[in-house]
Hints:
Layout: H1 9-15, H2 24-44
Amino acid sequence: MGRGDKKSKKGKRTAGSFGVTRNKKAIKTRLKRVASKKGTAAVAEAPAKKRTAAKKKAE
């Protein structure tokens, strides 16, 4: 736990990360990949049926 460790305060100061240790670029690319897979699956499925309100019978 020293200067090279980004999880310690001293390591954050040395790296100049201001407390951000997670790699945002890798996270964003992974999220884009998952979103694109979901998007293609949604297009392949049949469109959802529209729900209509039930009409009340006149008494």
